Amino acid sequence: MKKIEAIIKPFKLEEVREGLSALGVSGLTVTEVKGFGRQKGHTELYRGAEYVVDFLPKAKIEVVVPTSLVEAAVDAIVKAAHTGKIGDGKIFVTTVEQVVRIRTGETGEAAI
Amino acid sequence: MKKIEAIIKPFKLEEVREGLSALGVSGLTVTEVKGFGRQKGHTELYRGAEYVVDFLPKAKIEVVVPTSLVEAAVDAIVKAAHTGKIGDGKIFVTTVEQVVRIRTGETGEAAI
Amino acid sequence: MKKIEAIIKPFKLEEVREGLSALGVSGLTVTEVKGFGRQKGHTELYRGAEYVVDFLPKAKIEVVVPTSLVEAAVDAIVKAAHTGKIGDGKIFVTTVEQVVRIRTGETGEAAI
Amino acid sequence: KIERYDRALGAYLGVAVGDALGATVEFMLPREIRHLYGVHCEIVGGGWLKLKPGRVTDDTEMSLALGGALIAAGGWDAYAVADAFVAWLKSKPVDVGNTCRRGIQRYMMVRSLSGPVSESDGGNGALMRISPLVLATLNDDMAFRRQALEQAHITHNHPLSDIATLVLGEMARMLINGGGIKECRVLANALLTEYPRFRFDPYPGRASGYIVDTVQTVLHHFFHGDSFESCVVATVNCGEDADTTGAIVGMLAGALYGASAIPVRWLDKLDPGVVTEIRQQVDGLLELPGSQ
Ligand SMILES: Nc1ncnc2c1ncn2[C@@H]1O[C@H](COP(=O)(O)OP(=O)(O)O)[C@@H](O)[C@H]1O
Ligand SMILES: Nc1ncnc2c1ncn2[C@@H]1O[C@H](COP(=O)(O)OP(=O)(O)O)[C@@H](O)[C@H]1O
Ligand SMILES: Nc1ncnc2c1ncn2[C@@H]1O[C@H](COP(=O)(O)OP(=O)(O)O)[C@@H](O)[C@H]1O
Ligand SMILES: [Mg+2]
Ligand SMILES: [Mg+2]
User: Which residues in chain A are contacts of B91 at CB distance < 8 A?
Assistant: First the structure.
């Protein structure tokens, strides 16, 4: 089992979910995060004065899938989240040793 | 050392914390997240019109423990977070290679 | 490639970012979290009455770096985030198997 | 012949009625159902899926996917069935069982028609969708046995799921072909002799998605009821996996009592699109070689 963490532009969340559900992946967890990267922040006006906000809001998607599905899931995320402009985001893949479904006590691949 | 990530129903946070502190685990980190899974979202009324919010608020607990404690900690979380109704949540276990306590510079199991 | 997760006091975020960018690490992701640890909560005044909030706001920084850079990055974070008072935070290091830059499709170390 | 058609239609409509009625109380406990509804006996939708009244769930939808594939292929084609399940999964269904999802995903990734035998595949998802295959093989025992297991293994590979799918499918075939409740009892007793864990008298009281709990709930209320309505109502008021136990008892009760015995007030509430598709599929399935 692998955990895929994708940090994407927030407006792409729906498209990424669609891409994953076409693979039958429906369970995922989303966190609102702030990104600092090559894509610089922007300038905001606050009480008339200009100041630079150097982070950008991003959405972090965490989805645990069977290892056999990782490649297809990563491809689906890249396709859905891509705009070609700086700041599109990153995908990190790590190994998950155990998964438990709290409702039923099921473990391993049966739990996702 | 292992990291346990538990995505649970928010109202269960207190019980899970108690279950863990009964094992002597007092440090943990909590994040507010949104969950998409078999448990569907809910319908909200906004300015008189009904619309479907398809995610549900969840709490993500991250706790790093010595490997010898993982099983007991996972059991404690399952016991505390279980309601039997869909959406109870998931637990993911991954390996942590190094831990550092920033205050003292301690590393490894001494740091948790 | 390794992922470094650092849970720090929120007011230390700027210093930690500067410490990391001195090493040439410019990309990172930040999440607002709540910490429960040795550092107990604090007492807040709310509408004149005192009550105990048993968690503390923390910032979680996630930064993926080439393995060769891990030690230097951890040192930089410890140096920047350290105050010597309880609650300074923790650093967790885990292995990342794959990284993808969504904008270009680059993978591995080229993607971070 | 009329009677056989009425029983065949009864079995398939029975699945949809049991599904739509049971969905309201799925995952609830009997005492919660008593508290909210007294005796739950009307198709009102709602439930954890917040359904419109008459809406069916994965139980009926997977049956329609299987039935559609049988008719389109003019008989059995395992890949066509698996492809139909994939198309259904991609259509964002209102609910998908975890074991069904895993199996369909496996097929999508590696195109294998069966996973390894697995302890975690002991759910009722393979049995719940068997009715179109029953109608397609009313005159062909061997074909039913082989195809029932092939369709099951696309998502569930577990010995108890296998035996339950075969035996309850056999019972439905026999009832539609004019056998009575006595012959049914003989088949049930043969199952209990070989697999005592399916014993359902006295009723153990569990109605979960575990195939043993499901079969006990279904057979207990099927043999103790005396009408389509009494079998289905008693079953869904056990709660837990109520839409699926309701669908399966609906298949057996429909096969025994016929479509004409299904309460009109329930048929009127059922999703009209689903009723039309079921009627069309019954015609198509009965014309397949296995039922001639
Ligand atoms: N090394 C890193 N570790 C963790 N998160 C990163 C890292 N680099 C970038 N990110 C995240 O990815 C987002 C996009 O990265 P950015 O560098 O702006 O664009 P691009 O990948 O298109 O060059 C950032 O806002 C940040 O959230
Ligand atoms: N594959 C997954 N990867 C990451 N998080 C998941 C996954 N599946 C479910 N979750 C999380 O777990 C929560 C509960 O899952 P859900 O499917 O609703 O219930 P259950 O586990 O009881 O069937 C979801 O809201 C989501 O936050
Ligand atoms: N075992 C743990 N797992 C995950 N997070 C932890 C753990 N222990 C502490 N933390 C996080 O680190 C923060 C600081 O820890 P704390 O115990 O208060 O201070 P110190 O490390 O200085 O003794 C906590 O607020 C919490 O967010
Ligand atoms: Mg269902
Ligand atoms: Mg069900």
Answer: 98-100, 102
